[in-house]
Every structure is written in C-alpha cells, then in structure tokens.
Amino acid sequence: MPKDTQKANTGTTDNVVDLKGKLCPFAVMCIIKEVDSMQRGETRVFMVDDPLAIKSVPEELADYEAASVDVCKQEKGWEISVTLGVTD
Fold first, then answer.
1. Coil vs helix vs strand at 29
2. Which residue of 9, 60, 63, 65 is most buried, as measured by CB atoms within 10 A?
C-alpha cells in the first residue's frame, strides 16, 4: 500500500496515505486496515479520487468508537482525515 509520512501544515507529523487511482472496495479496505493499526489520538489522512470512497469510508467507520471522519474536496480528489479520539 502506498504510504508516505509528511509534515502537515500544523508542523506535526501525520501519516498521509495516497490512494489516488485505487478504486473501491480496495481503497476502503486499505483505509480500514490503516485505521485498525492507529492509536487513540492519532490522525491519518487518506488521499482518494474515487467518489465512492467518500461515501463508503464514513459508513464503514461509523461503528468505530470515537472515530472522527472529515472529508475535504481537493483540486484532484478528496482528503479523508480520520482521527481516533480519546475516550474516558
């Protein structure tokens, strides 16, 4: 799976996974696998260009406790940001 670690605009290190050119269900399966490996409080950004992914990912992650999913339109595709929250 293509994976790059880049500096985010905030200056913190976030994982950015480039899934452009990958169609669903492959893109969704890759995102779920990555989210399963995340720690609480961690954010991972997924770059996708398959419109089905922006619908499927939030639906698939709805059962993940304290997962926050944000989708932002980019010039060429979408950025899906997933954060696993900290629960008390």
1. helix
2. 60
Model confidence, pTM: 0.79
Cβ of 72: how many Cβ atoms within 10 Å?
A: 10
Report the b/e string of 15-43 with b at 16+ CB within 10 A.
bbbbbeebebeebbebbbebbeebeeeeb
**Looking at the DSSP assignment, which residues form a beta bridge with residue 70?**
81
- How does DSSP classify residue 25? T
> Per the omega criterion (within 30 degrees of 0), is the bond before 51 cis?
no
